[in-house]
Amino acid sequence: MSTLSSPALEAARSTGTTPLRLVRAEIMKIRTTSTWWLFLIGFIVFTALALTSNGFSHHFQLYPQQDVSDRAQALAQAAQARTPAGVAAIAASMMTSGQFLGVLFVMLLGSLVVTNEFAYQTATATFLAVPRRTAVVMAKLTAAACFGALFWLVATVLDGVVTPFFLHSQHVSTPLTGWTVLRSVLLNLLAFVLWAVFGLGLGTLIRSQVGSIIAGFAVYLGGFAAMELLFHAFYYFYRAGWVLGGPVIAPSVAANVMITPGQAFPHAPPQWAGLAIMVGYALVLTAGGIVLTLRRDVP
Amino acid sequence: MVVLLAALVLGGLAWLAWRKAGHNTSALAADVPLRPLGRPSGGRSIPAGQLPGGRIVASGLTKRYRDVKAVDSLSFVVEPGRVTGFLGPNGAGKTTTLRMLLGLAEPTAGTATVGGVRYADLDEPVRRVGAVLESGAAHKGRSGRDHLRVLCLEAGLPLARADEVLRLTGLTAAGDRAFGGYSLGMRQRLAVAAALLGDPQVLILDEPGNGLDPEGIRWMRDLLRTLAARGRTILVSSHQLAEMELLADDLIIIADGRLAAMGPLASVVDSMARGGRTLVRTPEPEKLTAALGRDAVVTPGEAGELYVTGVDAAAIGDAAQQAGLAIHQLTTERPDLEAAFLELTTGKAAIR
Lengths: 299, 352
What we know:
The complex is a heterodimer.
Chain A: H1 7-11, H2 19-31, H3 35-62, H4 71-81, H5 84-95, H6 99-119, H7 123-129, H8 133-169, H9 179-205, H10 209-237, H11 241-244, H12 251-259, H13 271-295
Chain B: H1 2-28, E1 56-65, E2 68-78, E3 83-87, H2 94-101, E4 109-114, H3 125-128, E5 129-132, H4 144-155, H5 160-168, H6 184-196, E6 202-206, H7 214-229, E7 233-238, H8 241-247, E8 250-255, E9 258-264, H9 265-270, E10 277-281, H10 285-292, E11 297-300, E12 306-309, H11 313-323, E13 329-333, H12 337-345
Helix pairs in contact in B: 4-5, 5-6, 10-11
């Protein structure tokens, strides 16, 4: 049966399974379904909304309304916002517009990279092709991080187009390549990548698609409130300043601390602590996910 | 503290990876040498049994889920160049066994190897073993071609191979359509296409006939027979017994997780021949019945024929000759695969 012969196999030298090919395969998996661009469209819409709302709030920061309750204080704040440092901070805020919901999208996409395989039972085919399961998880991690970076790039381009017009319209100016702005944009990249990895780790731990999405929402939106409540209650019994910094163990608070130069909130731990905690979560979740993936049978 | 924890976990991971690597070397020491799949075998036929490492060996394979032993000390050998049918009632442990063979489920005890190597330790698994599993599935929004191309990337195969296997399985026209719109038969063909990607010397198929129309079943049978004739190892699970009788050279029958019978199809069926009966036509049925003796159980048929069990055709012939009786017909009715299968498995899986 001549139909069984394979010119393709005979022509090509076997490359074997390489880490790069595995990452390409994972990126192809994301690329060949509609999820990612639906996410991207939603993400662009939300980024545009965030830009608009940020723009308005910075406008009123620079030009307080006539009927604002404490006009004297508002004018003092406006004067401070007009200093070079103040304008740079506004520019940095505009240039990271869309982060709040953006990282949520990226986290969900990260968890889908894993949970899709179980929801659509493609895990079997994947682990048949690559029995070395750790390599698969690492490839997924890299792919998720790449998509995190891609979303960051899209947001940054969008922000980068709008921000100069906004600054011009407000009659203030600052170089967007200044360190304050650049640092915020780079920390923003870190946030996108770490949340993507966080989501991936969540997906490896909770294979159920619905389960990991709910857990993702709960951690991202609920974790902050729960930790605030817990540590403020604790502070009621034990009045030490560092207790109020405790909520940093919630990932969304840690991420906020990580991206905020200076203090993110009163008694907040230093920036590097936020970074360490986010990296720690990403590592622990992924490591736990790898161990579980190695131990559990493929369903 | 977090950094410390992370370091600990990383250390644990490194240890796990090292342990896995250790497994690898010990498995490679097994008797059958590991050679890359012979690509020159492409168009030529190879005598049965001559492909290296095509033999599947399960030894003491056991899988326990909490209290239930799904597979219990199962040992068997599947030879290259033959189609081996893997039969058992629902819940007998067929799928669990195949998943253990393929490294998807970890055996509680025992080992399963292909060419002496555990699947997970195979160098290029897709080039050595192809598998069609019941859960053979793709993302519903992904096209069949993209599904195969992803697998090509993962397995280190040229992407063009995806188009070849689409052609081979008659799916070229449907290749760019989303998997969600595929019929059951097309899904099964896509699963076969995926299994053939690496032109493997071993094919393991779990219920490949499910959802196929008669033409599809015939296509599948021809494909598997062709591959077996070229020296490939074919292990195919099914409970479509009539199809198995046409397809299989060897049989492995399991019931309740244990081996019930194993061997060439004819001998498995023949081993059940004691349950078979002999049809006898004679002008003097009463005299023959008397002549047969106590071991024979004789049931008269509607047209005057006799059905005899308990003694074989030779004994009936001898008895007739000694009694001076004419025999017009003496036919041993061989039990078919269905009879043998039911005899081997009935009642054993009743609990599940």
